[in-house]
Amino acid sequence: MQAEELTAKFGIADVLDFVETEHGLVRANISLDGMAGELYLQGAQVTAWQPPGERPVLFASPNAVFAPGKAIRGGIPIIFPWFGPNRYAAAAPQHGFARTATWHLDGVESSGSASLTLTLSLGDNDVGSQFWPEPFRAIYSVTFARTLSLRLAVQNSSTHAITFEEALHSYFAVSDITAVAISGLARTTYIDKTQAGRRERQPAALVTVGAETDRVYLDTPARCVIEDGGWRRRVVVEKNGAASTVVWNPWAEKGAGMADLGDPAWRGMVCVEAGNVADNEVRLAAGGEHEMSTAISVEDGQ
Ligand code: BG6
């Protein structure tokens, strides 16, 4: 459906409308009592969420590319059904197909000026992937409110068990990467992707970033808090059904070398991703459904 039709079907005056970008992507613009949000149908990707009186919570790269089939650098890309490079096929797209596929908008629900929920879906017919040819349906609902709530359900429509990885690859805007400390990961084990996948024990209570950091923390269902000393705020990420946490910042050399990120933009972001990755991948029985959700909120900090 095109932007105009979507606005006619789902639009709410002064709250929700749809626009088409110059390269033909459709974006929902949400405005609720001082709160602003954005979501692209490509990837069902939330690219902005700003509660009233707060700075933007999500990072969107100033050099992001908004074009059909290109992953958008920022916001919350959905990683599914594999994380990183595909283990079995080098030619498969990094992080799966969900972030570059166009999702269907199935419904919009509003509760006055308090919240707005968009529900989107994607199925095997929409993607026809040779790399993961499983019958599935993914249903994603996003509630824009004072808390940003995201729920991803995956249904196995086949007659056999399926296995997949998934993550909500959340990019958070920070005052400066060196001013940030992440709690919630103490005494856990992580896979260090900067060290050929070596497994390490997280020694300190707080994770700080002072070099390229690319870690998959296993068995970490607890909430994470991103403490930002520069902006004196705490971003709280609650999780349900998500056993892994990925922490990523490419740091100077890689960040500057990424055409859709660049220097100094890499300093203003940290990814803290809730998901089920590596040892925590999901095995879902025939006919089964798996659900993961996160809720992101902002508190004043020290
Ligand atoms: C992270 C991965 O989740 O995403 C990193 O752990 C990767 O290894 C990063 O570099 C960005 O991936 P992409 O495909 O969006 O450039």
Word description of this protein:
With 302 residues, the chain is mainly beta. The protein is 6% helix and 43% strand. The chain is built from three helices and 23 strands. The strands form four sheets. A nine-stranded antiparallel β-sheet has the order 6-7-8-9-23-19-18-13-16. Strands 5, 11, 12, 14, 15, 17, 20 and 21 form an eight-stranded antiparallel β-sheet that branches. The chain is globular, with a radius of gyration of 18 Å. Bound molecules: 6-O-phosphono-beta-D-glucopyranose.
The separation of the N and C termini measures 46 Å
Count of strand segments: 23
**How much beta, percentage-wise?**
35-45%
Please tell me what the overall shape is. Answer: globular
Strand arrangement within the widest β-sheet reads 6-7-8-9-23-19-18-13-16
Q: C-alpha Rg, in Å?
A: 18 Å
Bound molecules: 6-O-phosphono-beta-D-glucopyranose
- Please write the string of helix (H) and strand (E) elements: HEEEEEEEHEEEEEEEEEEEEEHEEE
- Count of alpha and pi helical runs: 3
Mean pLDDT: 97
The proportion of residues forming helix, as a percent range, comes to: under 10%
Main sheet makeup: 9 strands, antiparallel
Query: Uncertain segments of ≥5 residues (pLDDT<50)?
Result: none
Summarize the structure.
With 302 residues, the protein is mainly β. The strands form four sheets. Strands 6-7-8-9-23-19-18-13-16 form a nine-stranded antiparallel beta sheet. Strands 5, 11, 12, 14, 15, 17, 20 and 21 form an eight-stranded antiparallel beta sheet that branches.
List keywords for this structure.
single chain, 302 residues, mainly beta, nine-stranded antiparallel sheet, eight-stranded antiparallel sheet, 3 helices, 6% helix, globular, binds 6-O-phosphono-beta-D-glucopyranose
